[in-house]
Amino acid sequence: MATMSCVLEGNRVKAFGKAIHALSRIGEELWLDPMVKGLALRSVNSAHSAYTCFLFSPMFFQHYSLGSGSEQGSATIKCKLLMKSVLPLFRGLNSIERNVERSQISISTPSDRVTIQFFCRHGITKTHNLHFQESEALQAEFASHLCPNVLKAPARLLGDMVMHFPVFQEEITLSMMPLSVSFRNYCEAGNDHMKMMYTEMSLHPDEFDYFQVGVDSDITFCLKELRGFLSFAESHSLPVSVHFGATGNPVRFYIKDMVLEATVVLATLMDSEKRGPSQPIGPPNPTSPRCADAAALPAVSYEADGSKPQDIPAVTELITSSQGSPIINPPALMQLLSPVDDPDRLGVSDEACPSATTTPASTMICSLLFRALSSEQDDDGCAARLPVLACHSDAEEDMEEDYRRSPSL
Amino acid sequence: MKFRGKIVDVACLNHFTRVVTTISKLTKTCVLRLTPDNLFFVLSGKVANGGVGMWCELSQANFFDEYQMEGVSPEDNEILLEVTPENLSRALKTVQNAKAVKVKLTKKHCPCLTIAAELPTLSSVSRVVTHDVPVDIVPRRLWHEFKEPIMPDFDVSVYLPPLKTMKSVVDRMKNLSNFLVIEANLNGQMNLKIETDLVSVTTHFKDLGNPPWGDDAASPSRESEAMAEARVDVRRLQQFLVGQQVNPSRAMCNIVHQGVVHLILLHEDVSLQYFIPAVA
């Protein structure tokens, strides 16, 4: 019988609530994944083009325990809850700040319930029981240390940029060039774009805590999905790291402090019109769907039995193959990706997809391909060759440090 | 046709932004008329707008540090642009802390008013934010529609009560009826009335005072108690009141009996006139 129980105190309840708000901007379901290293909250949007994960370490909680007398490594429950059941509990953050002294969250398997209790002033206790569905955890993988472009900036700076765009602005384009970073709003062509207001701003590299441009690129992503995350980052005054690559590849925003870390991975538009000359146009692949639907990266999801990816070789690779096109076998990919500062090489990976010529002029969102590893994995051994694209955050952090020290892999 | 203006003073920027925001609450689109000395936001009282008209006049020197324009031709030294004031308002609101804001007529994908703001940063290089607000050039042959409205031959002119008070009254009346009667007399009294099958409500204001337009303005033989009234769409009146963000130095209402309600707001450097036609 696997359970989890944690207690949050005072300010932490508000922070937790703010995370729920950010998660609610992404998807309609909330995954709770209690692990030894902390409680992970995840959400993904229906198009599978946006993913966010908030990981609260045990130190975030006043009290955090997994299982009732169970050993480490034994089965932990992964729950899926409806966002609209959870969000209202944390809706009024100001009221939570004023009234809630402590909160307890526990997961209990026999009754399939998540119990959220708020211990408020004046001896009032509010208990909410939410039914959960047991589910495999979904996780997007992202090889951030392989990204040629890296930015790190105080959340405030990004918030100031984003403030210039109206709340209804769906997508924005971030352009990275050796001497500047610019943000502008993105309007789909033909969408009454003659009447739209265009907003653009550019930043000098000096304004960033860290600025690394490996490849000139324009990435267009959904701003709406990012706002909640940025708001969370600003409220904690945390610097935000941004990792991305060439146009069409996903972008990752990341924050971390002593007790929590959070990630948002967004797919970016593969705009055929915006392709730079360095990207070679590969031969059309008739068997696969249009490249514009290209999944940016496949993700690995864990079995409910909590098997960890440590068994799989810690080789991280970025796959930009479309859903239907053949998976590139790892050795070739490694070759493609090793010199990361060579833009042409990175562009070559696009050869996996059919060329821009097969796509219509209109742009489409790349979706992150999420594939659950089911029991079939043993059958065709596919999964064994499927690269693990990201390690656990601890290992990933080490890799990031390695990367910084030796930028040319 | 050229236009280039620069606002450097933060109070001027703030004030200009508030004016544009007020206009944006009154109408979705309007015409911006630029002359060497003034800017006008104009809504011509066409039937399409329900006959509502608006005329807002700003003296450019009160806002702009630099102001250069070249009209359509030397004889017609004006520029008329159809614009969505909400876009302008949004663009201006985000750059309130700018060191300088330039407003220029540009040609991007279409004619635009470009708001370019230089924002302060911690580093040595300023951050530049540009907003391109699309506009439509109004051709010369249509200019006659956007002339300054003639003061109507009103029957009564009265100072308005505090706009906030008026707004809260009208807000509640709007829930009860679509139409509202405004009546006033030369004795400084004004009533707002609604009447439906179930209920009638009247709010009385007194001791408002009457603006001294001069003897030839109102008919001298008019009894001071006689009310001039006009029945208007309550939403139009509410729209006018919702947009007001600052208390004007003077607020007046001229009523043409069963004709039109002419509201005039005067601030130090901005004047706003709003015409609401009476309905039967």
Automatic annotation (TrEMBL), chain A:
Location(s) in or outside the cell: Nucleus
Annotated InterPro entries: DNA_clamp_sf, Rad9/Ddc1
Catalytic reactions of this protein: Exonucleolytic cleavage in the 3'- to 5'-direction to yield nucleoside 5'-phosphates
EC number: 3.1.11.2
Bilayer-spanning residue ranges: none
Keywords: DNA damage, Exonuclease, Hydrolase, Nuclease, Nucleus, Phosphoprotein
SUPFAM superfamilies (UniProt xref): DNA clamp (SSF55979)
Pfam entry (one): Rad9
Signal sequence extent: none
GO CC list: checkpoint clamp complex
GO MF term set: double-stranded DNA 3'-5' DNA exonuclease activity
Domain of life assignment: Eukaryota
UniProt-listed CDD domains: PCNA (cd00577)
Main location: nucleus
GO biological process: cellular response to ionizing radiation; DNA repair; DNA replication checkpoint signaling; mitotic intra-S DNA damage checkpoint signaling
Record-linked PANTHER family: CELL CYCLE CHECKPOINT CONTROL PROTEIN RAD9B, DNA REPAIR PROTEIN RAD9
Family recorded in the similarity comment: Belongs to the rad9 family.
Biological role: Component of the 9-1-1 cell-cycle checkpoint response complex that plays a major role in DNA repair. The 9-1-1 complex is recruited to DNA lesion upon damage by the RAD17-replication factor C (RFC) clamp loader complex. Acts then as a sliding clamp platform on DNA for several proteins involved in long-patch base excision repair (LP-BER).
Protein name, as recorded: Cell cycle checkpoint control protein RAD9A
Organism whose genome encodes this protein: Scophthalmus maximus
Gene name of the record: rad9b
